[in-house]
Design brief:
Helix 6 packs parallel to helix 8. The protein has an 8-stranded mixed sheet with strand order 1-2-3-4-5-6-7-8. The protein has 227 residues and is an alpha/beta fold. Strand 1 and strand 2 form a beta hairpin. Helix content is 33%, strand content 21%. The chain has 8 helices and 8 strands.
Length: 227
């Protein structure tokens, strides 16, 4: 495990949660706000036994445990950790980029909520992730989430150099046609980002008010996150 936040009011909608950050991610998104978790080291900074002990002390103080990263589905022990956290009485949330469809499928029945990153049009994922053909597993994961019945949020982190407004609008239309009902647009923030080129670009006027209105009309639940 790469780290833990003992208390969060923003990582699971409507719930107070502890957030466990899992090491490792196969993708290299330039806007990643946890780039230090992309590598999976031989020695974990935190041991599960210590995290479990902390969770036991949080019983009655928080409602949920969220597994984030990095990419939590990269960890073969994720399912075991979820079951142990659930046995303590917590709701379970997951943040995923959709990298490992089989592992996501195996843990979906154990989840109460999932936040799934949709990074771009699925044919254009390499521009974001810097990994060839990364859109294919992401698309499979989205279909799995929509078919599962698990509460979810699909969200896109948007930067004008990576997602021009025309592509962002096309992506939203694709998601709406697929049946996505809960969509959040997160405008890029430089906090934690190590890519100086992305950090240097002004995003104050992005996206336009007209595009935001179009997107909000596409989804029963739409959220714009912009600072």
């Amino acid at each position: 495990m790469g780290g833990i936040t003992a208390f969060s009011a923003t990582d699971y909608p409507g719930q107070l949660a502890a957030v466990i950050f899992v090491q490792g991610c196969p993708w290299r998104c330039g806007y990643c706000h946890n780039p230090h978790l992309q590598e999976r080291t031989a020695e974990s900074p935190l041991h599960w036994q210590d995290i479990r002990a902390l969770l036991e002390r949080r019983i009655g103080l928080i409602d949920a445990v969220v597994f984030s990263g990095g990419e939590p589905t990269m960890d073969p022990c994720l399912a075991d950790a979820i079951l142990e956290a659930r046995a303590l009485g917590f709701k379970i949330g997951l943040h995923s980029g959709g990298t490992h469809p089989e592992r996501l499928r195996s843990v979906l029945p154990m989840l109460d909520w999932i936040g799934l990153d949709i990074k771009a049009g699925f044919a254009n994922y390499e521009r974001i992730t810097r990994i060839r053909d990364s859109g294919a597993p992401a698309l499979t994961c989205l279909k799995e989430v929509l078919a599962s019945g698990v509460d979810y949020e699909c969200r896109t982190t948007a930067h004008p150099d990576l997602l021009p407004e025309s592509e962002l609008g096309a992506l939203a239309c694709t998601l709406a046609k697929m049946g996505v009902e809960n969509y959040a647009l997160q405008v890029f923030r430089s906090v934690g980002c190590s890519d100086e080129t992305l950090n240097a670009r002004a995003v104050r006027d992005y996206p336009s008010a007209g595009l935001v209105k179009r997107l909000s009309d596409l989804f029963p639940a739409f959220t714009l996150r912009k600072t």
